[in-house]
Design brief:
- This protein is mostly beta strands and 139 residues long.
- It is 0% helix and 47% strand.
- It has strands spanning 10-14, 20-23, 28-37, 41-47, 57-61, 68-75, 78-84, 93-98, 106-111, 116-118, 131-135.
């Protein structure tokens, strides 16, 4: 399971402000959380039943960032899906949609807290990586 988790540090975990349930004729699932890692995102999903179909989801933010599905793992009724990249600095919201919903209705929308922006002058590879204390939000 470790291979599924993005590299880097866990920056924050988003919990749904409302019950993030999605029900259609082909799938039923509930979004439990989204983990924001330094290098990607992990969406934690509860399936309606063990062995239920893996939901196909789409992530969107208010910037229009292209999030790419990387891999998925299902154990019992729990499904984890990873996406890259991580949220860009200043992201205000992140919406999960079902790719199978012809109406494109949101399953759940998360408010993304203002986070420190990584210091671009340092890298994790050289051991001098640390996050800047400067917070930025686009105008």
């Amino acid at each position: 399971m470790r291979k599924l988790i993005p590299s880097g540090t866990l920056r924050t975990m988003l919990l749904p402000p409302t019950y993030g349930q999605h029900v259609t004729h082909s799938t039923e699932f509930t979004v439990l959380s989204v983990e924001i890692w330094a290098t990607g995102l992990v969406v934690n999903i509860h399936l309606a039943s063990d062995g239920g179909p893996e939901p196909r989801i789409i992530l969107q933010d208010h910037f229009g960032t292209e999030y790419s599905f990387r891999e998925s793992a299902t154990v019992g009724s729990r499904n984890l899906q990873t996406f890259t990249p991580s949220v860009p600095p200043g992201t205000r919201s992140l919406t999960v949609r079902s790719a199978d919903d012809p109406d494109g209705r949101p399953v759940v929308t998360f408010a993304v807290p203002l986070m420190a922006v990584p210091d671009e002058s340092r890298s994790p590879q050289d051991g001098n990586y640390q996050e800047s204390r400067e917070l930025r939000r686009p105008a």
